[in-house]
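F.,

This is the one I mentioned.
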């Protein structure tokens, strides 16, 4: 929302409540707002490019695995995960060997209620929707936390 007579957006209630009394604090709030815009733009750009791959297989099991490993590396470097099309949880796209699917099955690998879960299993790249990478949970009982 824009203040009447001003070109500067009116701060949201959350920004007003946490707006620091110091002059430099407003600069940080504005910087965070700009970074969120940039991150959204990056997310939408990557997602748009990955959508062009939906419905494809890239030759062999090895080539499909290399493709999803490259996608994971790109997404991880920007703090993203793919959204599981079955349950909506953030996931890592993988290709697993599967009987009857020579080039492997594209699956969503994620943790739900501290249990590793795989959804999907199609022979072609699924539709991709990106979400923020979740924060890692602390390990319990000496077990490694799944990401």
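My design for it:
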């Amino acid at each position: 929302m824009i203040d009447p007579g001003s070109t500067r957006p009116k701060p949201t209630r959350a920004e007003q409540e946490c707006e620091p009394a110091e002059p430099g604090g407003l600069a940080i709030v504005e910087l965070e707002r700009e970074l969120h815009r940039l991150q959204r733009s990056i997310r939408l750009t990557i997602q748009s490019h990955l959508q062009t791959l939906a419905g494809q297989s890239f030759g062999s099991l090895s080539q499909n695995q290399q493709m999803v490993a490259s996608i994971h590396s790109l997404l991880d470097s920007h703090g993203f995960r793919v959204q599981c099309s079955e349950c909506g949880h953030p996931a890592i796209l993988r290709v697993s060997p599967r009987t009857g699917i020579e080039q492997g099955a594209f699956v969503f690998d994620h943790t739900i209620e501290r249990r590793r879960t795989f959804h999907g299993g199609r022979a072609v790249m699924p539709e991709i929707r990106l979400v923020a990478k979740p924060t890692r949970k602390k390990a319990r009982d000496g077990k490694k936390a799944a990401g």
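Residues 35-132 form one domain.

Talk soon.
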